């Protein structure tokens, strides 16, 4: 009886293996591959983490300006004149020059204060002093003086357009930074027709010149 039971059990196991053995083999291979893939993924993640830690200085805002269209927030610290100010950007104090406009000079070392220069500086001071602004880069990051060249926005509205609309600035094009040239010229044209600010002065373009 015992031998018969053993033979019956052996026959059952043999039958089970023949029926499901191939399937079990496939499952075993798949599980082995999944384990290998998981280990490889973990190793890659560890390598990436190690790289980030080894290069943490690079990622820690030492090079904050990398994208042309990306807008960055900055805190305005000090107004220099109508189109230039100091700002705290990622913990660094930067001199920011507004792109595509030129306001009358007030602090230029070689040029006397120009008409509406004080008004432009006062307007920029009242508008931006102590405020959080957004900065947008064009093709060129800095000028020859090391200043950041930026389009400036306050609460989503263009500061350059605000100055142009009041006749406190003129469009000043310095290629390759020309992204909003046509839009700014349209605002400038409207101020000129209404003889606002600098456009109330006869032959302003001949007298003022353009000083970046």
UniProtKB/TrEMBL annotation:
Signal sequence extent: none
Which Pfam families does UniProt cross-reference here?
Answer: SNase
Superkingdom classification of source: Bacteria
| Domain TNase-like positions | 70-201
Q: Where are the transmembrane segments?
A: 20-38
Q: Which PROSITE patterns match?
A: TNASE_3
**Which GO molecular function entries does the Swiss-Prot or TrEMBL record give?**
endonuclease activity; hydrolase activity
Give the record's keywords alphabetically. Endonuclease, Hydrolase, Membrane, Nuclease, Transmembrane, Transmembrane helix
Name the PANTHER family on file: EBNA2 BINDING PROTEIN P100 (PTHR12302), SERINE_THREONINE-PROTEIN KINASE 31 (PTHR12302:SF3)
Q: What is this protein called?
A: Endonuclease YncB, thermonuclease family
Q: What is the lineage of its organism?
A: Bacteria, Bacillati, Bacillota, Bacilli, Bacillales
